[in-house]
Amino acid sequence: MDNFNQPWVLFEAGVLTKALEKPILYTVFLGDLDPSTLEGNSLSQFQHTRMEKTEMIRLLRDINNDLTEGVRLEGDLISLFETLWPNFQQSVARITQKATKREIWIAELARESSIIAGKVFRNLIIRGPAVLAILEGNRFSRCLFDNPAKPEAMLWTPMNPDASIGAIGLSRCQFESCDFIGIGFTGSPEVLEAIRRDIPMAGLSPERRDAT
After folding, report:
1. What is the pLDDT of residues 15-48, one digit of tens each?
2. What are phi and psi of 34, to 5 degrees?
3. Residue where a domain stops, chosen among 21, 54, 71
4. How many angstroms separate the CA atoms of 15 and 10, rounded?
5. Are 206 and 124 in a shared domain?
6. Is residue 142 part of a domain?
7. Which of 16, 75, 172, 179 is the most buried (most CB within 10 A)?
8. pTM for the complete prediction?
């Protein structure tokens, strides 16, 4: 945002308008930026897209329509978008949030006890390698995971449902706006099923996801 009025940015914008007979330029706003931010700025003449699902679909359609070759059918285009969108959104979120998030190594918190209980984690990057055993009363809100498109890669089914030796237990913990990297999850069949159902949506919705 600080660069909007920098002379070099305005110069490049002018070059773009003159370099091509019919310049085609697509730009995307990240984070909380909005087209109204550019009112009165020469950059406002270009198309701008918010990082929202409906607007990104529109942008993809526009790009597809401007292609001179390799144009995809509408159904194929939307199907591909729906497949790639969760991982794309997760990657963008990590890029825009990384500067504001502190990293912790979850194993460091389990040195004295194999169970982490009653903790609140906010706006953190939580790194493994580790396997977390989801016990009672945990809550995950607006969290991102390594591969939401393939939750099975993160799930460990215990051979003995009553004991998980080597896993770090979580009890009555809250995770808000946290990124889990290199983390696997284990727990009861009900917990694992809840994760299978909810993790694919984690990168798409700000709604609360609970695991108890």
Report:
1. 766 665 665 677 777 665 666 666 666 666 666 7
2. -140, 150
3. 71
4. 9
5. yes
6. yes
7. 179
8. 0.51
